[in-house]
Amino acid sequence: MTWIFDTTPSYAFLLLRLGLAVTFFFHSTQHIFGWFGGRGVKAHLANWRDKYAIPVPIGALGLFIEFFGSFALLIGFLTRPFALGLAVFIATAMFKSHWGHGFFLARRPGEASGIEYTLALFLMAMALVIGGGGVFSVDRLLSR
Predict the structure, then answer these.
(1) Cα–Cα separations (whole angstroms), residue 19 to 13, 25, 139
(2) What region, left, alpha or beta, does residue 100 occupy, with left being phi > 0 and alpha being psi -120 to 50 degrees?
(3) For residue range 31-65, what is the model confidence (pLDDT) as tens digits?
(4) What is the 3-state secondary structure (H, E, C) of 47-90?
(5) Interval 73-115: pLDDT, tens
């Protein structure tokens, strides 16, 4: 059980953790609440079900991990499990939605984006799975 809370005492992991927390908070509020130009939970779950064959309960679990994972990462609590959940969430998006559209982000509105952004988020999340929450994390306090 200690491997969940153990962390490398590094400021680099703190920066990764905070960057992912902020990114996934805003991204999840688009998906769930329709904020910041998002379509809301019903539209996203229906789109994932119809376009990508992701069952609604699995999509809802993904949204739960995305939203609550952002808060967990912000304070560095259960960093490894939530980072792994976010890595799976974003890898699913990469393979289901962005794969086959090249590498780069969309250059024009309405153009499909490649894997550039999702790959970066996936690798950031996996770095937290490996290294933990870093300094100033609840995990670090609990591992002492």
Answers:
(1) 10, 10, 17
(2) left
(3) 999 999 999 999 999 999 999 999 999 999 999 99
(4) HHHHHHCCCHHHHHHHHHHHHHHHHHHHHCCCHHHHHHHHHHHH
(5) 999 999 999 999 999 999 999 998 888 888 888 777 778 888 9
Whole-angstrom distance, CA of residue 92 vs CA of residue 118: 9
> Among positive and negative, which fits the CA dihedral 18, 127, 64, 38?
positive
**Rounded distance between C-alpha atoms, residue 1 and residue 6, angstroms:** 9
Q: Give residue 41's pLDDT.
A: 96
Q: Which residues contact 71 (CB under 8 A, 6 or more apart)?
A: 21, 25
User: Is the distance from CB of 107 to CB of 116 less than 8 angstroms?
Assistant: no
CA distance 6 to 36: 35
Counted residue by residue, the chain has a size of 144
How far CA 38 is from CA of 34, 51, 62, 79, in Å, comes to: 4, 17, 16, 26
User: Could you tell me the pTM of the whole model?
Assistant: 0.91
